Amino acid sequence: MDGQVAGASWLFGPRRPLPVRVTPLRGESTGSFVNRLAHGQGLELEELLERVGFGQASRDPVRVRAYPSSTEMYVNERGLEYLAVLCGSTASALQEVLPSTAAAHLLQETETKAVWKWPWLPREGHLVPLCGTCAAACGVRETAWMISADRWRVCLEHLRFTDSDASGGEQGLSLKLLPETAEAHREREALNQRYGQVGQELFADAFQIAVHWWTHLPNTTRWVRRAWAVGLEAEAVPTAPLVLMPEVAAVAAWLAAFEHAGRRDGQARTRWMEELRSEMDGWGVDFSVGRLALMDWLQRHSTPVIPAPDTTGGPAAGTTLQARRPSAGMPGAGVPRQLRVSPGHAQAAQPTGVLGVASCLPWQLGQPACEM
User: Fold this and answer.
1) Tens of pLDDT along 47-98?
2) Which of 83, 100, 124 is the last residue of a domain?
3) Cα→Cα distances 209→186, 195, 212, 267, 354, Å
4) Cα separation of 237 and 271, whole Å?
5) In terms of domains, do 108 and 210 share one?
6) Which among 146, 46, 36, 127 is positioned nearest to 86, based on CA atoms?
7) How far is the CA of 174 from the CAs of 178, 250, 264, in angstroms?
8) The model scores a pTM over 0.85
9) Closest Cα partner for 79 from 46, 101, 57, 56?
10) Fewer CB atoms inside 10 A, N or C side of the chain?
11) Between these two residues, 368 and 341, which has the higher pLDDT value?
12) What pairing do the DSSP bridges indicate for beta strands 152-155 and 160-163?
C-alpha cells in the first residue's frame, strides 16, 4: 500500500515547496538555480535530480555537479510546473527571471511526466558567473551562473570581469587596474543607447576588427601589459575580450563617424584610413597588418545608403536612426543627429555569439590567423 501511495504521489508531482526557499536571480541559468535549490536543502545536485522528474544525466556525480558551469538544464512544461511547486513560485514567475524556461526553450515532450535534459551546450547564450559581490549582495554565497549573450560580463558597479572560461576565478577579475577597460564598456552602453541596434552592430564590427588585429598581433605591447596586470596569459584566447575593449570602443567611434559622414568614395575612404592610421600608431598596432580588416569593413560598407521605411518596428541596416550627437573629442563629434548604415553591412555574418550575429565580418575569436 505504501508503494502504491508513493507511486500516486510521484504521478501527480510535488504538492508542497521544499523546506528551504531559494530565490532565482534574474537572468540566471536554470541549471544554476536548481543547483542552488538542491544545496539549500543540504543535497547535492544529483540527489535532487534523482527525486524530481525523468531526465538525462551522467551517473558520475562529479560530472553532474559540474553541469551548471558547462551546460544548461532544460525542462518540459510539466517539469517547469514541478520546479515552480518545489521553489514555492509559479511557472509564469519563473519564466520572467530564468531565460531558459521561456516558452521557446521548453522541451517538446508532452507526456504527463516531468522531463529535464542537459544538452552538450546551451541552446542560446553562454554561461558566465555573476560578479561575486553582486551575488553576495543578493544573499547568494556560491557561484551563480547567468545566461549571457556575450562570453563575458562586466559589472561596472563593482568593477568585475567574469567570463565563460572563469579566467579570473568564479568571483571575477578586478578591473581596478584596468580602468580603461571599464570605461570602454560604458562607451559601449552609450553607443547602444544612442543608436540602438545600429550601435550594437557597429560595436560588433569594431570588436571583429580588433579580434583580427589581436589574432595576428597578440604581442602588441599594450595588450600584453593589460593581460599581465590582471595575471592572465597574454596570448590566451579568453584574454582578448578583456584587453581589447579600449581599442574596440575607439574603433566603434571611428566606424560611426564614417557612417555619419555618408561619403564612401575612394578619396573619403583613403582620408579616413589615414586618420585612423595615426591613432593605430599610438596604440602600437602595425598598420600594414591591421589595415586588412579595415579594408574588408570598408568594402562591405561602400554601398550608399538608401533610406527605407522601417516595417519591422525596429531599426535595421540601411535605415536612418535618430541619435544624440557624439560627445566632444570623439571621432565624428559635431555630425548630424542621424546615423545611416550601409546595407552592405548585412553580408557574411556568422552567428556564433551576439557579436558574431551583429557583425558583417565573418571571422571569429579563436580562429587561426591563416583562416582569416
Assistant:
1) 998 877 778 788 889 999 999 999 999 999 999 999 999 999 999 999 999 9
2) 124
3) 19, 20, 5, 22, 15
4) 33
5) no
6) 36
7) 8, 22, 42
8) no
9) 101
10) N
11) 368
12) antiparallel
Show the cell assigned to 310.
522601417
Cell numbers placing 242: 578583456
Give the range of the structural domain holding residue 223, as residue numbers without chain letter: 179-371
d(CA 157, CA 166) in angstroms, rounded, equals 19
For residue 117, which phi and psi values (nearest 5 degrees)? -140, 150
Q: Hey, how many other C-beta atoms are within 10 angstroms of the C-beta on 363?
A: 21
- Is 30 among the domain residues? yes
**115, 55 contact by CB (below 8 A):** yes
Q: Are residues 243 and 311 in the same domain?
A: yes
* 339: confidence class by pLDDT, cuts 50, 70, 90: confident
Section 175-190 average pLDDT = 95
Q: Residue 159 is placed in which grid cell? A: 568593477
pLDDT by residue (tens digit) across 243-278? Answer: 999 999 999 999 999 988 878 888 989 999 999 999
Cell numbers linked to 59? 551517473
Q: How many CB atoms within 10 Å of residue 168?
A: 20
Tell whether the model's pLDDT for residue 117 goes beyond 60: yes
Q: Is residue 55 a contact partner of residue 116, using CB atoms and an 8 Å limit?
A: yes
Given a cut of 70, whether residue 7 has pLDDT beyond it is no
Q: Are residues 119 and 184 in the same domain?
A: no
Let me know if 89 is exposed, middle or buried by CB neighbors in 10 A (0-12, 13-18, 19+).
middle
Q: Averaged over 342-361, what is the pLDDT?
A: 64
- Provide the phi-psi class of 172: left if phi over 0, else alpha when psi is between -120 and 50, else beta: left
Type of residue at 251: V
